[in-house]
């Protein structure tokens, strides 16, 4: 890049060379993943894609309260990791947490109602898009403060370690988080205490509106820094659910056996802008088109066909998911806004342990 970084404020990022994805690795078809697991990952990706598309439509109708950050294009990461962990494990996400919440088994209806700010929402309509939480499902929250949840995931992992369970904690974050102090603090702490925690960087190439390689000293902001903390540099195709699943499976096995943390960098791409307020015009010509050709869902669809899954079964999954999205939408629309009494709930705690019991 000829333009000096000191001139970044005047640099047109859309003029930069596009960063195309790697070609499809057909060798991943030979990974020893049960076919039923693969079909489930396909179902999950369909659920996340169709739900997010509907959330976008409702936002454009001014029904979603506040902004929203969608995971369109990044579904393989959430699906692959979710298939590799147990129901009693812990997940922590960023404000881009719809997909991770649904992947942990939270119902579409409560999540959709939460986006619409309704009383039947997952958090009674008071959390909204960026704070989805369901302890019952191991979804320990979506966090709007960049990097904060990495340290909280360490706490959950430390708790499991002290209690003698073999639970693991998984923290998802974007490439922008890798330049935040909490990222480095969390990694160092996790390694020192050999915590059962897995850090998953969803590298979609952009720190909100800024190309991550423009302000980062290494090409792969998570994987290239892993060896500095004594960790293996794990870089996977985040658009391939099989690749993500296999990396997550190995990391989970290591964590459960007392081997400590792992750091996975999954290369992926969001189909839209950072949020619904962002048209994404800063991305260079050709880059979006190239990545759209590596859309994780059509690619995985074709893989399942090659592995012997019938087209009719995949169509049935798509249709069943579509019906569930429709049902969730009607459920959310039928729910009333929170009443005045909700203003005085969930606003104070005495600091004791009673609220957890």
Return the structural class.
alpha/beta
Portion in strands: 5-15%
The CATH architecture comes to 3-Layer(aba) Sandwich
- Alpha-carbon distance between the two ends: 56 Å
Looking at the structure, the CATH topology is: Rossmann fold
The figure for the number of domains is: 1
pLDDT averaged over residues: 93
The parts where pLDDT drops under 50 for at least 5 residues are none
Which overall shape is indicated by the principal axes computed on the Cα atoms?
globular
- Number of H- or I-type helical stretches: 10
Gyration radius over CA? 20 Å
Please outline the major beta sheet. Answer: 6 strands, parallel
CATH superfamily: Thiamin diphosphate (ThDP)-binding fold, Pyr/PP domains
> Strand order within the widest sheet?
2-1-3-4-8-7
Notable traits:
357 residues; two-stranded antiparallel ribbon; six-stranded parallel beta sheet; Rossmann fold; alpha/beta
In short:
With 357 residues, this protein is of the alpha/beta class.
Q: Which secondary structure elements does this structure contain, and how are they paired or packed?
A:
Blueprint: H1 35-60, H2 75-82, E1 90-94, H3 98-103, H4 108-115, E2 139-143, H5 148-163, E3 169-174, H6 181-192, E4 197-203, E5 206-207, E6 210-211, E7 234-237, H7 241-256, E8 262-267, H8 287-292, H9 296-306, H10 311-334
Parallel strand pairs: 1-2, 1-3, 3-4, 4-8, 7-8
Antiparallel strand pairs: 5-6
